[in-house]
Every structure is written in C-alpha cells, then in structure tokens.
Design brief:
The protein has about 120 residues and is of the alpha+beta class. It has one domain: TATA-Binding Protein (2-Layer Sandwich). It is about 20% helix and about 30% strand.
Length: about 120
Amino acid sequence: MRQLAPCPQSPNCVSTTAESADQGIAPLRYQKTRAEAKEALKALIRSLPRAKLVEEDETYLHYEFTSLLLRFVDDVEFVFDDEAKTIHFRSASRTGYRDFGVNRQRMEDIRKLVEEKL
C-alpha cells in the first residue's frame, strides 16, 4: 500500500497518519467496494471549485486545490486501504508556513459531503 508523506513541522498540513494531535485527523471509512468508494469521492471532488486531479492509480488519488485570490496550491492525497475499508489522506500547503486552518476545514467539509455516499 502506498504511504503518505509525513507532515512538515509547519502548521499547514493535516494527515490521518500524523503523529501530532495538531496535525492529526480521522480517516474516512467506507462500506462499498473500493472502486465504488473511489468513484463517489471523485464525483464529490469534481463538484468542488478549483480542484484538479493530477495522479490516480487503483488505490491512490492526488488533487491540487488552488486558492481563489492568491492562487496558492494545496496538495490533497487519498490512499484507499481496502482491508480496513479506510481512506487515509493528507492535505498540505505547498508554500508558506500557516494556512489558518484551511486544510483541516477542507477535509472536514469533504467528510461531511461524502460520508453517507461511501
């Protein structure tokens, strides 16, 4: 299974595999098949503004989210663990130090929108 990179020391990253409570976030769970869960997640993200799929394989998705005003790019990665029926993810700013909670908020918003569809 593909591994997510660790979050840097800066407070502009959240990950389901982070050691730090400040950067940690709960993974998504799914009931459907991996393929169905992946398609549901992709359909949801397609509906979000300024999100671009840049890499995909059987168990992995990588998106770039671009901010409206300053055009900052955040990388959002998802790894599907079919054995545990879990989607691990990492959302991190490419530049800067602080993100004022943008990455955490994005992932919680995605959780709310997709939870019942998985």
